[in-house]
Amino acid sequence: MSARARRQRGYSLLEVIVAFALLAVGIGIVIGILSGGVRQVRAAQAASEAALYGESLIATRMAAGLVEPGREQGEFGDGRYRWTLTVEDYADPLLAEADAGLDAPAPPPGRLRHVVLEVDWDEGGPAQRLRLSTLHAGIDADALPPPAAAARGLRP
Questions:
Q1: In terms of C-beta density within 10 A (0-12 exposed, 13-18 middle, 19 or more buried), how is residue 119 classed?
Q2: Please, which pLDDT band fits residue 109 given cuts at 50, 70 and 90?
Q3: Which GO terms describe its cellular component (predicted)?
Q4: Phi, psi of 129 (to 5 degrees)
Q5: I want to staple 114 with a disulfide (CB 3.0 to 4.6 A). Which of 8, 33, 72, 90 is the partner?
Q6: Which range marks the domain in which residue 128 is found?
Q7: What's the mean pLDDT when you consider all of the chain?
Q8: CA distances (Å), 66 to each of 54, 58, 77, 99, 101, in order?
């Protein structure tokens, strides 16, 4: 064999097989990374959607004045999300101090309700739960000043 023929031999079969194996491993790693990213995006989307549904439910109930003690359950998002709404009277620390005879400011008229909404969902993976908690200040009609006094800014 001449010197020129030896320089142009090319790659052996073993070298080509090793190159393809490395390429396959690299492609597998890239696909794994991309699929993990897609799963995280779906999970974030589901959590965001659950938060929007939950906040909307609480805001709607508060605006309609439907914040009475008790427990309700339901679904939204075509059954993808299950919710449990719990409303309890809130023990105001200011009232406890006033009852104990401490020098505490007078509480505002009305009552406080502790509103807790738990939203559950599971999209082909482990069950997820979002918990939203807030206080709602309901106003007792008896504690408000009469309309004429309120218009002048006076208290009875």
A1: buried
A2: low
A3: plasma membrane; type II protein secretion system complex
A4: -140, 135
A5: 90
A6: 3-152
A7: 78
A8: 15, 9, 21, 29, 34
Total number of domains constituting the chain: 1
The answer for residues whose C-beta is within 8 angstroms of residue 130's C-beta and 6 or more apart is 47, 50, 51, 54, 118, 119
pLDDT in tens, 4-54: 555 667 788 888 899 999 999 999 998 888 878 888 888 888 889 999 999
| The pairing of beta strand 128-138 with beta strand 70-76 | unpaired
45 secondary structure, DSSP code: H
Q: 3-class SS at 110?
A: coil
Strand ranges for 31-104 from DSSP E? 70-76, 81-89
Percent of the chain's residues with pLDDT above 90: 28
Tell me: pLDDT of 154 over 70: no
Evaluate whether 67 touches 95 at the Cβ level (below 8 Å): no
Identify the burial level of 105 via C-beta atoms within 10 angstroms of its C-beta, where 0-12 means exposed, 13-18 middle and 19 or more buried: exposed
Q: Which of 80, 76, 70, 71 is nearest to 57 (CA)?
A: 76
